[in-house]
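Notes from the 1:1 (GR / supervisor)

We went over the backlog. Supervisor wanted to see one worked example end to end before approving the batch request, so GR pasted a single chain during the call. The sequence is below; no edits were made to it. Supervisor asked that the structure be written out right there so they could see what the output format looks like.
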Amino acid sequence: MDELRYEPNIFASTLAYNRTFRVCALLPDYRLDPYWALPKSGVEQAALAVRHYGINIEYVFHGPTGPDQFEGKAIALLDTRPDALLIAPLFLEASKNILQACAKKKIPVALINTDLEDHQALCYVGQDSFHSGVLAGKLLQLVLRPEDQVAVLNLDNEISRARHLLEKERGLRHYFHHRTDHTADVLRFDFEHFENPERLKAFLQAIFQLHPRLRGLFVTNSRSYLVLDALGTEAPEGLRIVGFDLLEPNLRYLKEERIAFLINQNPTRQGFQAVMSIVDQLIFKKKVERVQYLPLDIVVAENASYYLNR
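Structure output shown during the call:
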């Protein structure tokens, strides 16, 4: 077999054994947070590409703002013994529990969006959160004056458990800590009631009143547009925002130059590549690269259409 360079026909073998593989994608509910429609789209594209191998994708959605529903649905899924699991481990402790349970059951797990640096996972596909924070600092440095203050703004729940957001903050602080030409401290603000525009507006106005030199905002997830929705025309003059992801309202504010930069985390590619890594493991028995970082695209008004078309 080696001399003739024989390779088995995986497709024929799958048909011969009449084998199907059940892959469960446990994702935050895209109907509650539009960001998650993007990785879901990538999973759907991959599902179409590999369905002839007997890969069936089952979708399960959980609330995006707390660990209890995530962990409960994950445990229920594991009781049904899927062949593989794809998750976004937004909640640190709950996700570690699930990975340990999967390891005991020998169920491979692909992670997207957030890496736990846990070698029990099959792979992680997504951004390097620390370096995305470094990149955000560099971008803000380009558009701010040395005396302007910079703030990390987390519009999310349970920030202390959201490792990817904390890593982004660490990266931003690391960048400014090593700058000699920008002496302002990096501030941090967390706000859980981001879905209430009136409360968010009052929160932001209080911050700007208390910190009149604050002109740089790093919004650590895809919710930059909520800041501008809430402030309307009352945003401070010269406010510069760096955020994430090519959601329609973010792109609208980018084109209006009210968002300075968007960092594209390639969420659609995350979903697609995670499924393909699972297929490489289940079907082709290939060794899967543990960490698969995707490029951090810098998107401005002038090149946004390129990334959308791609």
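Supervisor's comment: The chain has two domains: 10-126+267-293, 129-264.
Batch request approved.
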